[in-house]
Amino acid sequence: MATEIQKTVRGFVAQELKGRHEYLDSLAEAPLPLYEKFRETGLANWWIPKENGGLGLTLSDSVDIVNELAYGDAGVAFTLFISVLGTSIVSLYGSEELKDAYLTPMAANGSYCATLGSERNAGSELGRIETVATRSGSELVLNGEKFFSTNSGFADFLVVVAASAEDPADHLAVLVPRDTPGLHITKRWDVIGLRASATYEVAFDNCRVPASYRLEGNGLRLLEIGLNASRILIATTALGIARRIRDHCMDYAKRKPLKGATLLDSPVFAAKLGQMEMQIDVMKSQCRAAARDYDDIMAAPDPGAVFARQGTLKSALTAKMFCGQTGWDVASTGSEMFGGLGFTNELPIGKLLRDIRYVSIVEGGDDVLRELVFSRYVIPVPRRS
Ligand SMILES: Cc1cc2nc3c(=O)[nH]c(=O)nc-3n(C[C@H](O)[C@H](O)[C@H](O)COP(=O)(O)OP(=O)(O)OC[C@H]3O[C@@H](n4cnc5c(N)ncnc54)[C@H](O)[C@@H]3O)c2cc1C
Which residue of 15, 86, 179, 362 has the fewest CB atoms within a 10 Å radius of its CB? Predict the structure, then answer.
């Protein structure tokens, strides 16, 4: 049965997203005005802890919310949840002063943060990133370029991962307010899907912040820890899109004449939809199981210390991989279902196919995640299941 929160999100989806797939696919201004309507529901940044004025909802709640949002539009869902990557790092490893100064206003204003790891040359080998943080008295000075970062054009602050100028083996995660001089948004990417979201290239040119804006710990490890929540929610967008595709297929099959009846009466169609429902059900179970793993750690007395030991969660990696691959299979079956129309922009199916593509790419492509699962969870015998 739907919770009150799910009902609120469904209301937002019905009011603001339904029937607007062309607009949501148009790479319009960022952030879209409809995000203000989401803020008015009182749910914006729903995961920010109660101590910082947020609702403190769990990742399991987040799976339910993102599942509903992504059913309406995955780009909208991505914009609304991706701040969890940066805020969870600040929440777990930032000083009380930083949390008060940056998380509390985000909870009050429904604003955004961005996280900047990836770079053009380093690719997924984040140990080779070239953005450098240099200590200068009581400040850190950032120089370098970041290739992709979602929401940075309008975020309150950015969490930037940089190499240490003083120690080549060390990396830092640094909170940088967006209005800091020397921070330049150089480009908005023309993406093929999630076009209601906005992803940017960013440059740092002698960008100075107080040294106390460094978050505690190795920056690469902190990024890995932050990615647990966002990878599970990226997996969840595949679930929402797959449910939408299923419902489109059902609507179309009722109308499509076939052999004196409709496509809905065909056993071939029944087999495809039965398979799709199985895929959707397992995707949902996987997202929920991964979220429970995350919530169990967050309920521990010192979640930061547990995550620092654990690093990337197996279930977060496998949820993203499984939902990306399975969702792509659902989208492929779905697009074939509409015949030639499935290869046009007449119906939403083309957009849904493009949207779901990101799940197996963003926050680590499957080649990278397979290697990570192998090195972290297959080689160490005690970590095998
Ligand atoms: C819409 C969008 C939003 C994004 N938002 C953000 C954001 O907010 N913050 C951020 O930091 N980044 C963001 N990114 C970047 C994204 O996370 C990366 O693009 C993604 O992780 C893939 O990394 P890459 O682009 O460096 O490609 P690479 O990982 O370098 O991949 C390129 C090729 O090399 C192969 N490859 C790489 N490593 C291996 C390996 N070990 N073994 C075998 N083959 C390998 C890949 O399979 C692929 O074929 C975003 C990207 C997009 C498209």
Answer: 179
What's the CA-to-centroid distance between 285 and ligand 1, angstroms?
A: 26
Please give the DSSP secondary-structure letter assigned to residue 145.
E
Residue-wise pLDDT for 155-196, tens only, equals: 999 999 999 999 989 999 999 999 999 999 999 999 999 999
Q: Could you tell me the residue range of the domain that residue 69 belongs to?
A: 4-109
3-state secondary structure of 214: strand
Domain count, the chain: 3
221, amino acid identity: R
Residue in 119, 357, 362, 369 to alter for ligand 1 test, most ligand atoms within 8 A of Cβ? 362
Answer yes or no: do 364 and 229 share one domain. yes
Mutate to test the pocket of ligand 1, among 358, 368, 374 (most ligand atoms within 8 A of CB): 368
| Mean pLDDT of the 78-90 span | 98
Cα-Cα-Cα-Cα torsion 204, 229, 327, 270, nearest 10 degrees, comes to -160
| Residue among 86, 243, 64, 65 at smallest CA distance from 152 | 86
Last residue of a domain, one of 86, 109, 132: 109
Rounded Cα–Cα distance for residues 43 and 106 (Å): 12
349 shares a domain with 291: yes
The response to whether residue 154 sits with its C-beta less than 6 Å from ligand 1 reads no
| Residues 134 and 162 reside in one and the same domain | yes
Whole-number pLDDT of residue 1: 64
Among the listed residues 225, 228, 232, the one whose alpha carbon sits nearest the alpha carbon of residue 61: 232
Which of 85, 197, 182 shows the shortest CA–CA distance to 150?
197
Q: Are residues 122 and 206 in the same domain?
A: yes
Query: What average pLDDT does the chain have?
Result: 97
- Residues 118-128 have a mean pLDDT of 95
Atom of ligand 1 nearest to the CA of 197: 1
Is the pLDDT at 385 greater than 90, yes or no? no
Atom of ligand 1 nearest to the CA of 371: 41
Q: Which of 88, 124, 126 to mutate to test the pocket of ligand 1 (most atoms within 8 A of CB)?
A: 124
Rounded percentage of the chain residues whose pLDDT exceeds 90: 99
> pLDDT above 70 covers what percent of the chain?
100
234 and 192 share a domain?
no
150 lines ligand 1 (CB under 6 A): yes
